[in-house]
Amino acid sequence: MSRTLASRWRARAAEGGRGSRKPRKRTSGAPRGREKAPQPKPRVAKVEKSARVASVKAEPAKAPPLPSDVSGYIEHVRHWLMTHHDEQSIEGQWRAEMRLRNQCGITQADREAIRALVDARVQQVRE
Questions:
Q1: How many beta carbons lie within 10 A of that of residue 77, not counting itself?
Q2: Model confidence pTM above 0.85
Q3: CA pair distance 61, 79, nearest whole angstrom
Q4: Closest C-alpha among 61, 64, 69, 78 to residue 114
Q5: C-alpha angle 36/40/45, rounded to 5°?
Q6: pLDDT of residue 88
Q7: Which residues contact 126 (CB under 8 A, 6 or more apart)?
Q8: What is the DSSP letter of 12?
Q9: Torsion sign, CA atoms 32, 35, 37, 42
Q10: Around Cβ 104, how many Cβ atoms within 10 Å?
Q11: CA dihedral 114, 118, 123, 125 (to 10 degrees)
């Protein structure tokens, strides 16, 4: 009686396969039954109490909310133009804000006027 290939595979699987296989070794993480070695704490310079309190109270400056109209977008552009100090970052910001310009309803004429501000800043940075 001849068996098909699929039935032979099923028979081997029922018998336990081709023999006993070794259990797979764990390749990541700590071995079972052992804890990870504790990491040494980094040394921190001692700071006076008054200096620590002052640093905790200081909050970082928050970015202004995104504009929703043409005049708000112009102020937004003026703000970020002064924060960028190289041509690549200015051009990158201009390209990244295409969707924002569309959401604010910037027309072709408005965009050309705003782009003139950007080009003037790029010239200023080059010099």
A1: 21
A2: no
A3: 13
A4: 78
A5: 160
A6: 93
A7: 87
A8: H
A9: positive
A10: 19
A11: 150
Amino acid at 15: E
User: Which ranges in the chain belong to alpha helices (H)?
Assistant: 5-15, 49-57, 70-83, 87-96, 98-104, 108-126
Is the Cβ–Cβ distance between 3 and 14 less than 8 Å?
no
Query: Residues 85, 86, 89, 91: is their CA dihedral positive or negative?
Result: positive
- In this structure, the number of other CB atoms found within 10 A of the CB of residue 94 comes to 19
Quote the percentage of the chain above a pLDDT of 70.
Answer: 61
Query: What span, in angstroms and rounded, lies between the C-alpha atoms of 13 and 21?
Result: 13
Calculate the dihedral angle through the C-alpha atoms of 55, 56, 58, 60, rounding to the nearest 10 degrees. Answer: 110
**Which of residues 100 and 54 earns the better pLDDT score?**
100
For residue 15, give both structure tokens. 């018998």
> Which pair of structure tokens corresponds to residue 39?
């990491």
Phi then psi for residue 20, to 5 deg, are: -75, 135
* Spatial distance between the Cα atoms of 99 and 124, rounded to a whole number of angstroms: 26
CA nearest neighbour of 117 among 74, 87, 70, 71: 74
